[in-house]
Specification:
By secondary structure, the protein is α+β, with helices and mostly antiparallel strands. It is 35% helix and 28% strand. Strand 4 and strand 5 form a beta hairpin.
C-alpha cells in the first residue's frame, strides 16, 4: 500500500485529494488500465475506505466523502494522511430479490431496464439494495418500475 500526505481540496462541492503521479502509476499498473474509473482502498487518517478513482477535468482525483473523513467539506485545506492501493475485489451489487421479481413480472419495464447503460442499472440496483426497511424497499421497487415505464421520477431522474 502506498502512503502520502495531501491537502484536502474541493471542486464543485466535492472534497478530494490529488494522487502523486508515481503512486497513480503504481495503481494503473496494478489495475492494468489508466482510464475509466479504478477501484481503490486504503485509509485516510487511519480510517479504512473503499472508493473509486475518477478522472475529472483532466485530473485523477480521490474524492473524500464524510464516511471517509468526518466533516470533510469543512476541512478543506487540511493535510491528511492517505494510504491507497488498487482494490481488485468484486464490487458487484446483487439486485434485491423484490426488484428481480418486479422486473420479471413486468416485461416492458424489464426490457427498458436491460437497455439502460450499466451505470444507470447499477444506480437503481444500489439505491434499492441500500434501503433498510421492507416498507421503503417495496415503495421504491414500485417507483423504479414506474420510472422505467416513464410514469414517475426516480433517483433524481425524469426518464430512463
Amino acid at each position: 500500500m502506498d502512503k502520502f500526505n495531501a491537502i484536502l481540496k474541493i471542486i464543485v462541492g466535492n472534497p478530494f485529494v490529488f494522487i502523486p503521479i508515481e503512486i497513480l502509476n503504481n495503481i494503473f499498473q496494478q489495475a492494468n488500465k489508466n482510464r475509466s474509473s479504478i477501484p481503490v482502498k486504503g485509509t485516510i487518517n487511519g480510517k479504512y475506505y473503499q472508493q473509486t478513482l475518477v478522472k475529472y477535468s483532466g485530473e485523477w482525483r480521490l474524492y473524500v466523502n464524510m464516511k471517509m473523513l468526518n466533516k470533510s467539506p469543512q476541512r478543506i485545506g487540511e493535510i491528511i494522511d492517505v494510504e491507497i492501493e488498487f482494490d481488485p475485489s468484486d464490487r458487484t451489487i446483487k439486485p434485491h430479490p423484490k426488484l428481480i421479481s418486479a422486473l420479471a413480472a413486468n416485461r416492458k419495464a424489464n426490457d427498458i431496464f436491460e437497455k439502460l447503460s450499466p451505470s444507470r442499472q447499477k444506480e437503481i440496483i444500489r439505491y434499492i439494495s441500500n434501503l433498510k426497511t421492507e416498507k421503503s424497499i417495496d415503495r421504491n421497487v414500485k417507483r423504479a418500475i414506474n420510472f422505467l415505464l416513464g410514469k414517475e421520477r426516480f433517483v433524481g431522474r425524469d426518464k430512463p
